[in-house]
From TrEMBL:
<feature type="binding site">
    <location>
        <position position="162"/>
    </location>
    <ligand>
        <name>iminosuccinate</name>
    </ligand>
</feature>
<dbReference type="GO" id="GO:0008987">
    <property type="term" value="F:quinolinate synthetase A activity"/>
</dbReference>
<keyword id="KW-0662">Pyridine nucleotide biosynthesis</keyword>
<feature type="binding site">
    <location>
        <position position="74"/>
    </location>
    <ligand>
        <name>iminosuccinate</name>
    </ligand>
</feature>
<feature type="binding site">
    <location>
        <position position="53"/>
    </location>
    <ligand>
        <name>iminosuccinate</name>
    </ligand>
</feature>
<keyword id="KW-0408">Iron</keyword>
<keyword id="KW-0963">Cytoplasm</keyword>
<comment type="similarity">
    <text>Belongs to the quinolinate synthase family. Type 1 subfamily.</text>
</comment>
<keyword id="KW-0411">Iron-sulfur</keyword>
<feature type="binding site">
    <location>
        <position position="303"/>
    </location>
    <ligand>
        <name>[4Fe-4S] cluster</name>
    </ligand>
</feature>
<dbReference type="GO" id="GO:0034628">
    <property type="term" value="P:'de novo' NAD+ biosynthetic process from L-aspartate"/>
</dbReference>
<keyword id="KW-0479">Metal-binding</keyword>
<feature type="binding site">
    <location>
        <begin position="232"/>
        <end position="234"/>
    </location>
    <ligand>
        <name>iminosuccinate</name>
    </ligand>
</feature>
<dbReference type="InterPro" id="IPR023513">
    <property type="entry name" value="Quinolinate_synth_A_type1"/>
</dbReference>
<keyword id="KW-0808">Transferase</keyword>
<dbReference type="InterPro" id="IPR003473">
    <property type="entry name" value="NadA"/>
</dbReference>
<dbReference type="InterPro" id="IPR036094">
    <property type="entry name" value="NadA_sf"/>
</dbReference>
Length: 355
């Protein structure tokens, strides 16, 4: 059973896209070097650590690595920030990641290069509409993806990332629970198919992943029959069906390393190539096609909001402050409950699997 299409949310996403301009990479190599040096000094001065998502510019990912920060998925970014002694966390990613970091680290200052960087899934699931929807289904357990606002997390029973979504929903189905899933309909559909759970799916999607085309990938496979196809489950079912490996960002990086194929067609944001190349040096990575014949893509395998994180706005926020994440304490305390549930479940799962 699917929730009706939220046209208002879709229009909101489209408006944001229409107003976004691609970040122009106009800096010379010397200017980049100077900015990198300045950021390194500022990180020390501000007692700050940089945590960057896999989808951000490789410039930022390498800077995070060079300065003792981390490059990871949203949950690991927050976990890392929690364990790190720095007083300030600088989150290069999108807003819900900054919020998750703040929920887990209320005593720390959480900055982002720009608070304008958001996510179509977050935009597509407004807290008030979602709360009203959940209230109509009081007999359902509410499971939300990490790509949601703090207010939506506060309404949930569980928060999940793509790496643990199947395990959590499978666990709930085993207990006989019915599930409301939000916001990504493709990931929800994938989880539903794998677990057989009784689920109501919120109707939202990632504008990057939903543009991958199975036909384009199959055409590419004809040219490179030895290539393996790696797919993030935020992609449409027709794309997931032809994958050699399906998984979260971290799981796809592991698959890139472990699969014997020399050539890999990757259906997720191309920012991930930086870590894939580190994990599997010598392999050839290709973007999965997004535009159909004669069509133009909107996101073209790169998230326009992730692209808003850059060296210059990172330096600016460290130097001048602003762009700080605040989460209402009442919301934070409520959102912490389903987040902690996931963290505990994840730790238990790891123990059970001998990890
Ligand atoms: S890639 Fe998709 S899911 Fe990730 S932040 Fe961008 S819009 Fe959101």
């Amino acid at each position: 059973m699917n929730q009706p299409v939220d046209h208002a949310a879709q229009r909101l996403v489209q408006q944001h896209l229409d107003h976004l301009h691609e970040v122009q990479d106009t800096l010379s190599p010397a200017e980049k070097q100077a900015l990198r040096a300045r950021i390194k000094d500022l990180l020390v001065r501000e007692d700050a650590v940089l945590v960057a998502h896999y989808y951000t510019d490789p410039e930022l990912q390498s800077l995070a690595e060079e300065t003792g920060g981390c490059v990871s998925d949203s949950l690991e970014m927050a976990r890392f920030g929690n364990a790190h002694p720095a007083r300030t966390l600088v989150v290069a990613g999108v807003k819900f990641m900054g919020e998750t970091a703040k929920i887990l680290n209320p005593e720390k200052r959480v900055l982002m290069p720009t608070l304008e960087a958001t996510c179509s899934l977050d935009l597509g699931c407004p807290a008030d509409t979602f709360t009203a929807f959940c209230d109509q289904h009081p007999d359902h357990t509410v499971v939300v993806y990490a790509n949601t606002s703090a207010a939506v997390k506060a309404r949930a029973d569980w928060v999940v990332t793509s790496s643990i979504a199947v395990d959590v929903v499978d666990h709930l189905a085993g207990l006989g629970e019915k599930v409301i899933w939000a916001p990504d309909k493709y990931l929800g559909g994938y989880v539903q198919k794998v677990t057989g759970a009784d689920m109501i799916l919120w109707d939202s999607s990632c504008i990057v992943h939903e543009e991958f085309k199975s036909r384009g990938i199959l055409d590419l496979k004809k040219q490179f029959p030895d290539a393996a196809v790696l797919v993030h489950p935020e992609s449409p079912a027709s794309v997931v069906e032809i994958a050699d490996a399906v998984g979260s960002t971290s799981q796809l990086i592991a698959a890139a390393r472990d699969l014997p194929n020399e050539r890999l067609i990757v259906a997720t944001d191309r920012g991930i190539f930086y870590k894939m190349q580190q994990a599997a040096p010598g392999k050839i990575f290709m973007e999965a096609p997004t535009a159909g014949n004669g069509a133009t893509c909107r996101s073209c395998a790169h998230c326009p909001w992730m692209a808003m994180n850059a060296l210059d706005n990172l330096a600016h926020v460290l130097e001048h402050g602003g762009e700080e994440i605040f989460v209402d304490e009442d919301v934070r305390v409520k959102a912490m409950v389903p987040l902690q549930r996931m963290l505990d479940f994840s730790a238990e799962l790891k123990r059970a699997r001998g990890g």
